[in-house]
Design goal:
The chain is built from 10 helices and 3 strands, in the order βααβαααβααααα. By secondary structure, the chain is mainly α. The longest helix has 34 residues.
Length: 313
């Protein structure tokens, strides 16, 4: 195995967002606000779930881990992008670039697998309500999260090790605001056949298969809902799944738009715009989606605020 890239590339230059230099102050203020909203909103969800015993259920157990993953996912790219915008620098070290690839893939895969676990939880809750507490035991929930973490870490590590084998002795300009794996492969002067094969295989394992599982889960949920005789029961089931369905639609909608549309629709600028959608916009919207459409979360927030306002001083 030949590890010869370190003698060629010591740093990369990130081009950033399309036309960002003409409106740099506006972009900086916008993305800083979005990142802070993402961090504060998701940390608030974690805090509410931690403090309110009524939220100590499998659904909110997965939601707390999803919120933590969203914070981590955004933190992989946003701070470096904001720093470069503020300092008008475009450079990122080779080690920093490879680390960014690893954590981006790890938390991206983990986000996907947690959404799949949440879909399974909703399936059991609606299709097998009498056996819900037995099936969705604490040990199973913990196992699903641990297996998601292990698999996502393995995928990130595999891609990173294969990336480290490549040479980057020519162009070191990355047409993105972070070290995107596909952009780096196009820049490499080495043979990337193995990398592309692994990308396809891993994509099937951690994106296509989980997506199909989510579709099957909601297909069965839909069939069960249609057999519910009361309108009240239908609305209750829909409210239970509405938030998760919205998040899944945002997450997979951006992935489909980026990777599965014909190549003529995927210019570098559109790649960057879609990347902003799933690295910043979707993690920022998740707290609002789960809070505004969830009575339990709004109730927990009200209880915490009441404790703060009316606690003895």
């Amino acid at each position: 195995m030949r590890w010869d890239n370190m003698s060629c590339a010591s740093e990369f230059l990130l081009l950033g967002l399309p036309s960002w230099r003409e409106k740099q102050d506006l972009y900086y203020a916008l993305f800083l606000t979005m990142y802070l909203t993402t961090v504060l909103g998701n940390l608030l969800i974690i805090l509410l779930i931690r403090l309110d015993s009524r939220l100590h259920t499998p659904m909110y157990f997965f939601l707390s881990h999803l919120a933590l993953t969203d914070v981590s996912f955004s933190s992989v790219t946003a701070p470096k992008m904001l720093f470069n915008m503020q300092t008008q620098s475009q450079s990122i070290s080779y080690a920093g670039c490879v680390s960014q690839v690893y954590f981006f893939l790890q938390f991206g895969c983990l986000d996907n697998l947690l959404l799949t676990s949440m879909a399974y939880d909703r399936y059991v809750a609606i299709c097998h309500p009498l056996h819900y507490t037995t099936i969705m035991s604490q040990s199973l929930c913990f196992l699903l999260v641990m297996m998601s973490c292990i698999l996502s870490s393995a995928v990130g590590l595999l891609h990173t090790l294969l990336l480290a084998r490549l040479s980057f002795c020519g162009d070191n300009i990355v047409p993105h605001f972070f070290c995107d794996l596909s952009a780096l492969l196009k820049m490499s002067s080495s043979d990337t056949t193995v990398n592309e094969l692994v990308i396809f295989t891993a994509g099937v394992v951690v994106i296509t298969v989980p997506f199909m599982c989510i579709l099957v889960s909601y297909g069965r949920i839909g069939a069960t809902i249609l057999r519910v005789p009361s309108t009240k029961g239908i609305f209750k089931a829909l409210s239970t799944c509405g938030s998760h369905l919205t998040v899944v639609s945002l997450y997979y909608g951006s992935i489909i738009g980026l990777y599965f549309l014909p190549s003529s629709f995927n210019s570098n600028e559109k790649d960057v715009i879609v990347a902003v959608l799933y690295t910043l916009v979707t993690p920022m919207l998740n707290p609002f989606i789960y809070s505004l459409r969830n009575r339990d979360m709004k109730g927990a927030l009200g209880n915490v605020l009441n404790r703060i306002m009316f606690s003895p001083r």
